[in-house]
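ugh finaly. both done.
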Amino acid sequence: MPKPIVFRTTHHIRFSDLDPYNHVSTARYATYFVDHRMQGLREQIGWDVEALMKAPFMVFVRRLEIDFVRPARVDQEITITSFVREFHGPDATIECTMSDSAGKDVARCLMVVAHIDRQTNRTSDWPPDRAALFYEKDAT
């Protein structure tokens, strides 16, 4: 089985990310995970916003399931890693982990991203050549 490419980004928690209890607000976690994937698409796959707007397909986050492990706080540096666990029809299932500077998990996320045909505006199966971009090339 091919090895998935791991996206890795680093973020700094800002004051505006906090709720009244001095924790990162719930909605910001979702924003961090989605922004992380978009940054990874740009850096690892070459799909920046301009390229995605011209592509014959669209991607849409269909579902996010976030497990909150421990609070993230202001001025904390966090690292998010993620990889595509599997493709099933139009869905890519992505595992994400947010960790603090000591490597302890802060949150985990399961993200399902749908592949959408731009002409029909309907989901379509991930083409094998497009799905292959998310795995390391075979050395043989």
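ok and the 2nd:
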Amino acid sequence: MKIYFAGDHAGFEMKKALMALVAELGYDVEDCGAYEKDKADDYPDFIASAARKLSDDVLDGQESRAIVTGASGQGEAMMANRFKGVRCGVYYGDPGRKQTDMSGNQLGILASSREHQNSNCLSLGLRFLTPEESKDAVKKWLETGFSGDERHVRRIEKLDRLGA
């Protein structure tokens, strides 16, 4: 599976470290920028590149994902979510409590975003995460599958249909 990466100057160093980790895990990685650390760059340029490629893959029926990095992760997720078929969640770290879903299962936010929303893009708010937390989050997110439950499939279809 291909994993697209993007981040501006605030996420530049961590993006490179995460790309190396994900490649070691056996995934095909593609860097969508930034290609150099420039404090004057703008995250939408790089995030749009990764999100556009992910969206094209989704529309072509190819499984891929994207990981985007930034200071807060918010703007990065907002940019990514403008592309059809991209479902980007923001991660700041473990909130210290679990949610309980309708089936009584306890899920952290990463597991929930994968199991319930089938997120295909992860935005990391690096001001809130240590390098180890970032790496652990990426591993967990990549390892967690989508539940495929009918109610989740129905809701994801509505995201695509109503957001068009």
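summary for the 2nd one i guess: DSSP finds six helices and seven strands in the chain.
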